[in-house]
Design brief:
- By secondary structure, the protein is an alpha/beta fold.
- Among the domains are: 101 residues, OB fold (Dihydrolipoamide Acetyltransferase, E2P), CATH 2.40.50.140; 192 residues, 3-Layer(aba) Sandwich (Rossmann fold); 157 residues, Rossmann fold (3-Layer(aba) Sandwich).
- 41% of the residues lie in helices and 18% in strands.
- A 7-stranded mixed sheet has the order 6-7-4-3-2-5-8, with no helix packed on it. A 7-stranded parallel sheet has the order 12-13-11-14-15-10-16, with helices on both faces.
- Strand 3 and strand 4 form a beta hairpin.
- Helix 16 crosses helix 25 and helix 21 runs antiparallel to helix 22.
- The protein is globular.
- 37% of the residues are buried.
- It binds adenosine-5'-diphosphate and magnesium ion.
- The site of adenosine-5'-diphosphate has 18 residues, from helix 12.
């Protein structure tokens, strides 16, 4: 149990909340039961036992009646038949509890809980907790009931188990919260649905509150204590780029965010800014121009991308945009190997000769030393929370300015939780002349008209992406899908040139294939989601997503953002199998209806639930959430943030005695949180 659920102390057990409660005060009549009911209980007696079936279908049946109907209780563990028949007597009143199903037209309950009716105190059972258990625990005989035995024992002793309150009295009073001890008790053993609701509210609030307190405390500390490099002026590099090299007008939104950043970087404070902008809104260009300001002031800049492909693409984009400007840009990724290649880059970075270093996480390694790092840009990164960013400080006495760019539109509540310590700039305008992408849904069986459409686009000189899902667990099978798909496309378009890119290829092969597509030598690019972020080929006007049912909304939107970058009408084609779940149908429908990234992000968070986001490891969130849910508890996030802010106003030095318990709890949480500085 310990290793499975990380329950190692009484406290962990107290905080291992049931996922639901079942009202054990209610009795049903057998004639009321239907197969779609959750758990029910019935009072009655066993008429007779009977064994049916042979081999693996062998089962023991007890015919059970409440005088108004008959119900079959069924067991399949042959070894237990004898014991069951001996333990439960015919004609004696029992209360039977379980989940009803229908088999052969009769109502059944398989493996019911049976208690003698005269000993079971239903009023006392009240709302019974149900706990999650893992497969392995089930195999070891641990189930929800065993956990219930632990927790009920714990609460019988809870009189002695005085837990210090973790929230200040003032908050508890102001927000009418239940005290800690009571809320923990009620989360497991509530006396009423209302008590459960109030206990849940308090715990949700508390979880979100400590995340906000942590993030805001950190932000204030930084504002007070941390100085930033002062970029006093805009110099020749910025000006020359702006007037001689920029091939188009900046959008107003781009101008505005560059101004916002200039102000930060000139202020003497450290810039910590989140730049949000939908795919294709021109964030990369903004990053480049911000970096030129750093260079103009005699500093180096660094751009960190989440994947090698993206880092390489940025490197290429920068080289193309900067053309013969006298700026030394280098690329450092894991696949740049060998002393001969790495040493000059590392050396140049150390001496300051390398002015812009572009790379993956490799740029955070200890052997990468900068001479005067003034600005670090973190691109397309949704896993770079407070703790990870804190790590950047250690590299320098005065930390560099930090710009985090994200295209995955983050719902406000999540942004507050992940990036709540950052100032936010938004590019809310696309470069002019872009036509909205048209999204259509195709069944995979009906590919003829799809192929016709694609041929027409290619005849116009356009290029086409075809994406296949690649999901870790079944990587081999997925790769097979892609290979089969590739052959299919080659057979369908024997006259065209087709590239293929996936994660299992060597970096050099990948690059070669990508390059061919970027240069327009191939018309179709068959790929896995390696192209999800950042890839930029304005001439590509069609994005075909195979097995679209297997992608989440955010991912579909990212992929779609690879097209629609030129002036031509672009298309996104979602290809799915015929049988789709309700939820998938909705996803596809939303994609076909809107191009608005924020709308999609909100919908995505609601659909997927928080599962994919909430682990600290995945999300960059400081502490795990056990009970609060960023998607559903949006209003509480705001309340938690406001409350944390007012506490920090009232107690800036963290010395008010009434807040002592709260600060202690925050320290504990931070101690238990993963130490990111040890993980790379
Ligand atoms: P993002 O990183 O936000 O997804 P990019 O920076 O890759 O977007 O820009 C997408 C495309 O739009 C690129 O080809 C870029 O050169 C172009 N672009 C950026 N800003 C403008 C602008 N103001 N006018 C026209 N095109 C632009
Ligand atoms: Mg980008």
């Amino acid at each position: 149990m310990e290793s499975e659920l990380h329950i190692t102390t009484f406290r962990d057990l107290l905080y291992y909340f049931p996922y639901k409660h079942i009202d054990r005060t209610r009795l049903y009549y057998i004639h009321e039961l239907t197969a779609d009911m959750p758990f029910v209980q019935v009072r009655g007696e066993i008429l007779s036992f009977e064994e049916e079936g042979t081999g693996r279908k062998r089962r023991l049946i007890a015919h059970f009646t409440d005088g108004r109907g008959i119900l079959d209780l069924v067991w399949f563990q042959v070894g237990a038949f004898k014991w069951i028949k001996k333990s439960y007597l015919t004609g004696k009143p029992y209360i039977v509890f379980g989940r009803p199903t229908v088999f052969n037209g009769r109502i059944n309950i398989a493996h019911p809980d049976i208690d003698p009716a005269d000993t079971l105190q239903l009023e006392q059972l009240g709302l019974q907790p149900y706990y999650n258990t893992t497969e392995r625990m089930k195999k070891a005989g641990m189930n929800s009931r065993s956990i219930e035995r632990f927790t009920s024992t714990l609460f019988q002793k809870a009189g002695e188990l005085q837990l210090p309150e973790t929230l200040p009295e003032s908050i508890i009073r102001r927000l009418l919260l239940v005290p800690l001890g009571q809320s923990l008790h009620d989360l497991h053993y509530p006396n009423s649905a209302d008590a459960l609701r109030r206990a849940t509210y308090r715990q949700k609030f508390e979880e979100l509150f400590f995340i906000q307190l942590n993030i805001l405390r950190y932000a204030r500390l930084r504002q007070q204590q941390v100085h930033g490099h002062v970029f006093a002026s805009i110099g020749p590099l910025f000006h020359s780029f702006y007037s001689d090299y920029l091939p188009f007008q900046l959008t107003n939104a781009q101008k505005r965010v560059i101004k916002e950043m200039r102000k930060d970087m000139g202020s003497g404070k450290q810039m910590n800014r989140l730049l949000q902008g939908d795919v294709g809104s021109g964030k990369t260009l903004v990053a480049l121009m911000t970096m030129l300001i750093a260079l103009d002031n005699g500093y180096q800049a660094c751009l960190m991308a989440p994947t090698e492909i993206l880092a390489e693409q940025h490197y290429a984009t920068f080289q193309e945009m900067l053309r013969e400007m006298p700026i030394h840009v280098e690329l450092l990724t894991g696949s740049i190997k060998g002393k001969k290649k790495r040493t000059p880059i590392l050396e140049g970075t150390r001496t300051g000769e390398v002015q812009i270093l572009i790379g993956t996480h490799a740029v955070l390694e200890d052997n990468v030393e900068f001479n005067r790092l003034g600005l670090i840009v973190i691109d397309e990164q949704h896993r770079f929370g407070v703790a990870q960013r804190a790590r950047l400080w250690k590299k320098n006495e005065i930390p560099p300015h930090v710009l985090v760019m994200t295209a995955t539109p983050i719902p406000r509540t999540l942004a507050m939780t992940l990036y709540g310590d950052l100032d936010v700039s938004v590019i809310d305008e696309l470069p002019p002349g872009r036509k909205p992408i048209e999204t259509r849904h195709f069944w995979e069986e009906r590919s003829e008209s799809l192929y016709r459409g694609i041929r027409a686009e290619i005849a116009k000189g356009r290029q086409v992406y075809v994406v296949y899902p690649l999901i870790q667990e079944s990587e081999k099978m997925d790769l097979q899908d892609l290979e089969n798909g590739y052959e299919q496309w080659c057979r369908t378009f024997p006259d065209l040139q087709i590239s293929k890119v996936h994660g299992q290829m060597k970096s050099s092969e990948k690059d070669a294939e990508m390059d061919k597509f970027v240069r327009g030598e191939t018309q179709i690019l068959i790929a896995t989601t390696v192209i999800e972020v950042g890839v930029n080929v304005p001439n590509a006007s069609v994005m075909v997503i195979q097995n679209a049912e297997r992608f989440g909304l955010a991912q579909l939107h990212q992929l779609r953002g690879r097209v629609g970058r030129g002036a031509d009408q672009s298309y996104c084609i979602l290809v799915t199998k015929y049988q789709l779940s309700q939820e998938t149908k909705k996803r596809i429908q939303i994609m076909c209806e809107t191009n608005d990234g924020f709308e999609i992000a909100e919908a995505d968070l609601k659909f997927r639930g928080p599962g994919d986001l909430e682990g600290t490891q995945q999300s960059g969130m400081a502490f795990d959430l056990h009970i609060a849910n960023i998607a559903r508890d949006g209003q509480l996030v705001q309340l938690a943030r406001d409350t944390a802010n007012s506490i920090l106003d009232e107690d800036p030095t963290q010395t008010l005695p009434e807040n002592a318990g709260m600060w202690r709890r925050l320290r504990e949480l931070n101690k238990n949180a993963i130490d990111w500085s040890n993980i790379s």
